[in-house]
Design goal:
Elements (H helix, E strand, L loop, with lengths): L4 E5 L5 H8 L18 H12 L5 E7 L4 E12 L2 E8 L9 H16 L4 E6 L4 H10 L2 E6 L2 E7 H11 L1
Parallel strand pairs: 4-5
Antiparallel strand pairs: 1-2, 2-3, 3-4, 5-7, 6-7
Length: about 170
């Protein structure tokens, strides 16, 4: 059975779920985020409220179709000069390894390139995060280098369109 997802803009109420993810160190194994103290619902709500206001960021919830269950986040950060940085995580570990990261990546690429008219996206991923590397390569990202121990990857709108045409 294939699990289908959609993305929608994050809302403040999502903090009631996402604060729980912030306190699970397994979710953040391969990221720069390391909670130094317990994150409360109030702290997460304040953080989300501040970040939803930033004009150079667009943050989405990843949700299951049918159940309308919020299970992760995908976002475009540092949007400037027709490019942005992509971030993705699945906070509900029941849905790890189910193809959801790839689906969400494809949805955000379509949004970024066809709705926001961006020209390129880039990301940084831990080299030991094999599932993430696989997702991004399958979506058409290419490795562009390494910085601070992380693999740098990018994709252009032109490359994405060509990649999509090859899959048809």
């Amino acid at each position: 059975m294939t699990i289908s997802v959609y993305i929608r803009p994050l809302v403040l109420e999502d903090a009631q779920t996402s604060y729980l993810w912030r306190n699970d160190p397994q979710i953040w194994t391969f990221t720069k985020f390391k909670a130094t103290k317990r994150i409360t619902s109030r702290m997460e709500t304040a953080w989300l409220q501040d970040n939803l206001r930033k004009p150079d960021q667009i943050r989405f919830a990843i949700c299951l179709k049918g159940l309308d269950t919020y299970i992760g986040n995908i976002q475009l950060l540092d949007i400037q000069q027709n490019k942005a940085e992509l971030h993705l995580f699945i906070g509900n570990k029941l849905y790890w390894g189910k193809g959801i990261g790839y689906q969400a990546t494809m949805l955000i690429l379509k949004y970024a390139f066809f709705f926001k008219d961006l020209e390129s996206l880039y990301l940084r991923v831990h080299p030991a995060n094999i599932p993430a590397l696989s997702i991004y390569e399958k979506a058409g990202f290419e490795i562009t280098g390494e910085k601070d121990g992380l693999v740098m990857m990018s994709i252009s709108k032109k490359k994405f369109i060509a990649h999509e045409d090859l899959k048809r």
